[in-house]
Specification:
Blueprint: E1 2-3, E2 6-7, E3 20-21, E4 30-35, E5 38-45, E6 60-64, E7 67-75, E8 83-86, E9 91-94, E10 103-112, E11 115-124, E12 131-132, E13 134-138, E14 145-146, E15 152-156, H1 163-167, E16 170-174, E17 180-184, E18 189-194, E19 202-208, E20 214-216, E21 219-221, E22 225-231, E23 235-240, E24 245-250, E25 253-259, E26 275-278, E27 281-283, E28 286-289, E29 302-305, E30 308-310, E31 317-320, E32 338-340, H2 342-351, E33 357-361, H3 380-384
Parallel strand pairs: 3-4, 12-21, 14-22, 23-33, 31-32
Antiparallel strand pairs: 1-2, 4-5, 5-6, 6-9, 7-10, 8-9, 10-11, 13-15, 15-18, 16-19, 17-18, 19-22, 20-21, 23-24, 24-25, 26-33, 27-30, 28-29, 30-31
Domain L,D-TPase catalytic: 235-361
Organism: Actinomadura napierensis
Keywords: Acyltransferase, Cell shape, Cell wall biogenesis/degradation, Peptidoglycan synthesis, Transferase
């Protein structure tokens, strides 16, 4: 191939080739734009035809003797690649990573002597043997409103080697700003918690710019993820286990005081935990069995209960218990749950939101911060120590 009577250089490797462009023409890699007595050279890296470009490589466009007017990057899949012009419009660099196993075309427009010319480069990115994906974002139920204590919980499809690189691309944007931080719970789970409760009645947006992120060990992020979270009313329940009552409030207004019967305290297992809990889920009915015991073992039980709202991973629920109504409000006789009347259980079940706060006091057994969603048991300064970033 020849241009203006001279042979064009093939674009190889990472650097582009040099060619002279006639008006309206374009060539991958590098172009020289002639206008009067001045020339503008535009260089695009990676050059056209380059294969297996690392997804976290930087796309760079440089102009000498003139200025870049516009640079766009189009990919065959995934999110758009953004960039920034610097140095008096002499340089453009991408500001985010690329999707693995995709093809890209970079189009650069440069001005020379008042005329606009175009240079392009087409290349493909590496398709790694292993990729990292977010397999679950909690909360995730369609149309759900969550409580003001709700965390954001991410699950990954494989262990994350470079946690800092991944955490750096996780973004949480509430309508009503509040400080928050991520904490890693193992190598495949990370949790976001705010310093103070979310403001009620707002939208929180989560975004993970994960595509192309080098997660370590040759693993790259497969795709971006996003979620929208709707925070409902501020429903906070406080209860004194020794006093056998809990008070439910909504947006600061008292809704109801509910008598209950808590754990009998005969063993640690049968002692209701004190501390800040979050409502986790609910079911009607739920079958409860004694943890760590088999049929025939001392203390074994199996009980079907109605209107059950879970608040820990150690088997604690608020649920209907018609058999203990006589003790509710005066004595603790349960295996650790908060037993309430059928009418109160149905009412509490109906208003309960995942992430609602339940504060219990009165026993020597504190709920562990990693027992269910009891993340508020950790002071925020301690919580932040579990993140991967300074």
């Amino acid at each position: 191939m020849t241009i203006n009577g001279r042979p064009a250089m093939a674009a190889t490797g990472i650097a582009g080739a040099v060619a002279v462009l006639a008006a309206g023409c374009g060539i991958g890699g590098t172009g020289v734009l002639s206008a009067g007595e001045s020339d503008t050279t535009v260089t695009i890296t990676p050059a056209t035809g380059t294969r297996a470009v690392k997804p976290d490589a930087v796309i760079e466009v440089k102009a000498s003797g003139g200025k870049l007017a516009k640079v766009t990057v189009q990919g065959s899949k995934g999110s758009a690649v953004t960039g920034r012009l610097t140095g008096g419009h002499k340089t453009w660099r991408s500001t985010r990573t690329m999707t693995p196993g995709a093809s890209y075309t970079v189009t650069a427009q440069a001005k020379s002597g008042g005329k606009l010319r175009t240079v392009t480069s087409a290349f493909t990115t590496l398709a790694p043997a292993q990729t990292l994906s977010i397999t679950d974002v909690t909360p995730n139920l369609p149309g759900e409103k969550v409580g003001v204590g709700m965390p954001i919980i991410l699950q990954f499809n494989r262990p994350v080697a470079d946690k800092a690189a991944v955490e750096r691309v996780l973004h949480v944007t509430p309508d009503k700003p509040v400080e928050g931080a991520w904490r890693w719970v193992g190598s495949q789970e990370v949790v976001y918690r705010t310093k103070t409760y979310w403001q009620p009645h707002q939208t929180v947006r989560f975004r993970a710019d994960l595509a192309g992120v080098n997660a370590g060990g040759g693993v790259y992020g497969a795709a971006d993820a996003a979620s929208t979270i709707s925070v409902g009313a501020a429903q906070i329940t406080t209860g004194d286990i020794g006093g056998h009552h809990m008070t439910v409030t909504r947006d600061g207004r008292k809704l109801r005081t509910v008598p209950f019967s808590a754990g009998n305290g005969e063993t640690r297992e049968f002692t209701t935990t004190s501390g800040v809990h979050l409502l986790m889920d609910k079911g009607n009915p739920v079958t409860m069995t004694s943890p760590g015991r088999q049929p025939g073992d001392p203390g074994y039980y199996q009980q079907v209960v109605d209107y059950a709202v879970r608040f820990s991973n150690s088997g604690e629920y608020v649920h209907s218990a018609p058999w203990s109504v006589g003790s509710q409000g005066s004595a603790n006789v349960s295996h650790g749950c908060l037993n309430v009347s059928p009418a109160n259980a149905e009412w509490f079940y109906g208003i309960a939101q995942r992430g609602d706060v339940l504060k219990l006091t009165g026993t020597g057994r504190q709920v562990e911060w990693d027992n269910g969603w009891s993340f508020w048991q950790l002071p925020f300064a301690k919580w932040k120590e579990g993140g991967a970033l300074d």
